[in-house]
């Protein structure tokens, strides 16, 4: 499949401004609280935001750091920055000050757009932000009196609302090339600080064509809602770029995603597509009277971030009658490249390769393994990042020619369905045999007492690694030695004996990272 883009190309035109040319100026594209915005309003506000960034000193190829919750200002900033040819960087707004120090130094952002709610922590990082020249502050709507803010003399501070309102509603688009740098997408930082995967103007549109339009069939009558927030590339795609690319709509909310919030948002806005993660799927299923909640507007759900256990898939289908399409993507490739399709779901697998991408499964010598054998997944496709910023050796290791090495262990069956076994660095070697933690976790979840679980490796005292399980119990079950022994026996009868967890530690909750994944590195400490 060939997907071509013209040499002079700007992703803001592809995602937003084409809707005006196609007659959607008066169509609602964004819902937030009780507000609605049409494509015409979105374009004008994004133009004003682009002009505001220029007036604040941002030039083509300068980095702009977005530190915002999901709100309209995020959207205007994103498209405004793209329109003027700035490079978008976006991070979790709930980080500690030290992380903001890292991001400001690493990105060398010329401008940061920050919500007032997070200003105290960002402010602590400003004295060491050598490259930052301007700060645009999105004020709290409900705040009566804003706290005085005195940035360093090297940084000019502006009210986002005031500076945007003062601009013209027409913005001159930068003459960007399809191969100009457009956005950095940060890795999850499973080891060390997150790295910026550097993407070009055509990368995100390429995946949108291949995955969203041609594989998933997203269309202009779709309305999307997301559990993950827009700073995460997974949600940037599914809950902003994909619906806008086809003339659809999205509903945003700034609150933290909880099961109750998700039920309320779905019942209020009646979306057709939900972006979610396995931990939220599990949490929503475990809400009292979950089966009485109305999810009938949904035609399917995306799931990604980590493999969806078969047990959760079947419980969701039985409870809500809504399809889940599990898939895998990465910051390095922007978005999903292997996925289940609506009406073609094989539970437990991550589906088939998206047309427009190629996959290989290789051994330690980089030789392709036969179907059915496990190895490391390599992906090829024209949404691959150029490199990791300031990480030359790691870039060479990951981006070898046209192929991106994922670090994920997979096998593919004879019908082309891919089966995930975990991260290469998370695999456990037990008794000389590699064991996938996900296999043990899937088994544990079938026990009636297990609400959530995670498996990591632990030294047994003789320098040998054995599986250890962290378990959150369901209400009504008493954590203790008796239950631990019952769970161990349960696993022994269902998978190979050597895979059972030698230790079970009961915990009140499992740590999650800002992508909603279980943070296993914290469990190993």
Oligomer: single chain
Rg over C-alpha atoms, rounded to the nearest angstrom = 23 Å
Q: Give the CA-CA distance, first to last residue.
A: 46 Å
Structural class call reads alpha/beta
Q: Fill in the CATH topology of the largest domain.
A: Rossmann fold
Low-pLDDT sequence parts: none
- According to CATH, the homologous superfamily of the largest domain is ANL, N-terminal domain
How confident overall, as mean pLDDT? 92
Q: Biggest sheet: strands side by side, in what order?
A: 2-1-11-10-12-13-14-15-16
Note the total helix count.
15
Beta-strand residue percentage: 15-25%
Q: What helical percentage do the residues reach? A: 25-40%
CATH architecture of the largest domain: 3-Layer(aba) Sandwich
Largest sheet: 9 strands, mixed
CATH C-level category of the largest domain: Alpha Beta
Shape descriptor: globular
Number of strands: 27
User: What is the domain tally?
Assistant: 3
Describe the structure.
The chain is 28% helix and 25% strand. It is built from 15 helices and 27 strands. A 9-stranded mixed β-sheet has the order 2-1-11-10-12-13-14-15-16, with helices on both faces. Strands 4-3-5-6-7 form a 5-stranded parallel β-sheet, sandwiched between helices. Helix 1 packs across helix 3 and helix 2 (39-55) crosses helix 3 (72-83). The longest helix is centred in the N-terminal third of the chain and has 17 residues, at 39-55. The mean pLDDT is 92.
């Amino acid at each position: 499949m060939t997907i071509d883009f013209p040499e002079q190309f700007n992703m803001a035109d592809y995602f937003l401004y084409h809707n005006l040319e196609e007659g959607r100026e008066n169509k609602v594209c964004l819902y937030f609280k009780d507000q609605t915005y049409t494509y015409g309003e979105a374009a004008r506000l994004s133009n004003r935001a682009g002009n505001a960034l220029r007036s604040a000193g941002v030039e083509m190829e300068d980095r702009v750091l977005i530190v915002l919750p999901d709100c309209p200002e995020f959207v205007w900033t994103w498209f405004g920055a793209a329109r003027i040819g700035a490079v978008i960087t976006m991070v979790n707004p709930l980080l500690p000050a030290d992380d903001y120090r890292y991001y400001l130094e690493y990105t060398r952002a010329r401008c940061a757009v920050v919500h007032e709610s997070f200003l105290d922590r960002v402010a602590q990082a400003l004295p060491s932000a050598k490259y930052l020249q301007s700060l645009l502050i999105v004020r709290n709507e409900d705040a009566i009196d804003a706290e005085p803010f005195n940035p360093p003399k090297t940084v000019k501070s502006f009210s986002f609302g005031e500076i945007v309102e003062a601009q013209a509603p027409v913005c001159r688009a930068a003459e960007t090339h399809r191969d100009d740098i457009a956005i950095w997408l940060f890795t999850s930082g499973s080891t060390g600080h997150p790295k910026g995967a550097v993407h070009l103007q055509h990368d995100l549109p390429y995946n949108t064509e291949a995955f969203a339009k041609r594989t998933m069939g997203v269309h202009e009558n779709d309305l999307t809602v997301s559990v993950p927030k827009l700073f995460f590339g997974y949600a940037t795609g599914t809950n902003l770029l994909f619906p806008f690319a086809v003339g659809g709509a999205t509903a945003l909310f700034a609150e933290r995603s909880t099961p109750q919030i998700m039920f309320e948002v779905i019942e209020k806005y009646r979306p057709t597509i939900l972006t979610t993660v396995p931990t939220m799927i599990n949490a929503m299923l475990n809400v009292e009277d979950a089966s009485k909640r109305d999810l009938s507007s949904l035609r399917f759900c995306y799931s990604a971030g980590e493999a969806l256990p078969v047990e959760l898939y079947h419980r969701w289908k039985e409870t809500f009658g809504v399809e889940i399409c599990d898939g895998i993507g990465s910051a390095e490739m922007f978005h999903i490249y292997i996925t289940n399709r609506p009406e073609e779901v094989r539970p437990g697998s991550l589906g088939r390769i998206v047309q427009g991408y190629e996959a290989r499964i290789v051994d330690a010598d980089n030789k392709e393994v036969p179907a059915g054998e496990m190895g490391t997944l390599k992906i090829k496709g024209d949404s691959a990042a150029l490199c990791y910023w300031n990480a030359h050796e790691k870039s060479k290791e990951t981006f070898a020619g046209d192929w991106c090495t994922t670090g994920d262990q997979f096998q593919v069956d004879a019908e082309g369905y891919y089966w995930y076994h975990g991260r290469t660095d998370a695999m456990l070697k037990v008794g000389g045999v590699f064991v996938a933690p996900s296999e043990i976790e899937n088994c544990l979840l079938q026990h009636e007492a297990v609400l959530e679980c995670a498996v990591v490796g632990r030294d047994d005292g003789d320098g040998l690694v054995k599986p250890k399980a962290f378990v959150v119990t369901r209400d009504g079950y008493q954590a203790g030695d008796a239950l631990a022994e019952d769970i161990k026996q349960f696993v022994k009868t269902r998978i190979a004996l050597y895979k059972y967890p030698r230790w079970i530690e009961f915990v009140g909750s499992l740590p999650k990272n800002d992508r909603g994944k279980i943070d296993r590195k914290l469990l190993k400490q």
